[in-house]
Write a structure and sequence with these properties.
This protein has 266 residues and is of the alpha+beta class. It has two domains: 70 residues, Orthogonal Bundle (Multidrug-efflux Transporter Regulator, Chain: A, Domain 2); 142 residues, Regulatory factor, effector binding domain (Multidrug-efflux Transporter 1 Regulator Bmrr, Chain A). The protein is built from seven helices and eleven strands. An eight-stranded antiparallel beta sheet has the order 4-9-11-10-6-7-5-8, with helices on one face. The chain starts with a strand and ends with a strand. One of its GO terms (molecular function) is DNA binding. Keywords: DNA-binding, Repressor, Transcription, Transcription regulation.
Length: 266
């Protein structure tokens, strides 16, 4: 058996680290002298130390090392854990790459788009319109899949641009959204709803560019409403004059979206 100093030299683990591993139940000595408290390590402890050193070199955390020591009884068990850890690393690399891209995008936009966008706000009367729509609760990015379904059902019986109506007052992860298209005539289908949207009065502006900046258009509308003592109410509406295609997204900088917020009528 090896005293702690000898075991430290053999494993290149400091005495402080070995005492820490003992306290954390990671690597407990096989024998401890009850009289003086001295720790003694054997060959089995040495094999365990080699595994711990390997895991440390592969940047396993202390919690992960504890898990491995509890789970793995042989090399086959260890290989399963290594495959799982490799997948976790790959997913983390992907997240980090996406984060780096966000930094790059931010720097590019800051250098090229630092000018304040001026939105022209107008009050418009929206007439009654026949629409084919689907109302759902979910994420904003799901709009496209529902619009594709609507176009598949209505075929050539549409007239105008696709739209989204947001029935929530604010932003929500699980939002109440209605997507649709203006149609020439009502269609009988269980997959979509055909109805007439009532006439309404709206504050309107046009947003040019990516959807992740569309909040600026809403800010301009709400600023205008506050300045002119106009009360905004739900729902709000977005009309996609130019947007992504059914398959390809195209250039987001060329997207054109009419943003409309309902207002209280006199």
């Amino acid at each position: 058996m090896y005293k702690i100093g000898e075991f430290s030299k053999i494993t290149s683990l400091s005495i402080k680290t070995l005492r820490y591993y003992d306290d954390e139940n990671i690597l407990k000595p096989s024998y401890r002298n009850q009289d003086n408290g001295y720790r003694y390590y054997n060959e089995g402890d040495f094999d365990k130390a080699k595994l711990i050193i390997l895991l440390k070199n592969l940047e396993f955390t202390i919690s992960e090392i504890k898990d491995v020591l509890n789970l793995c009884k042989n090399e086959e068990d260890l290989n399963y854990v290594f495959i799982e850890k490799k997948t976790m690393i790959e997913e983390n690399i992907k997240r980090q790459q996406e984060l780096l891209k966000k930094f790059d995008d931010y720097n590019i936009k800051n250098s090229t788009e630092n000018k304040k966008i001026v939105y022209e706000i107008g009050i418009k009367d929206s007439p009654k319109i026949k629409v084919a729509s689907i109302r759902y609760k979910g994420r904003y990015k799901e709009c496209g899949s529902y619009l594709r379904l609507i176009y598949k059902v209505v075929k050539g019986n549409y007239n105008g641009y696709p739209f989204s109506i947001y029935h929530d007052e604010g932003y929500k992860k699980d939002a109440d959204i209605e997507v649709g298209v203006v149609i020439n005539r009502f269609i009988s289908s269980t997959k979509i709803s055909c109805k007439e949207l009532p006439s309404s009065k709206l504050l309107s502006t046009t947003h040019y560019g990516e959807y992740n900046k569309i909040g600026n258009a809403y800010k301009a509308i709400f600023d205008y409403a506050n300045k002119n003592n106009i009360k905004c109410v739900v729902p709000s509406r977005e009309v996609y004059i130019k947007g992504p295609g059914m398959i390809f997204k195209g250039n987001p900088k060329k997207y054109i979206t009419e943003v409309m917020v309902s207002i209280e009528e006199d």
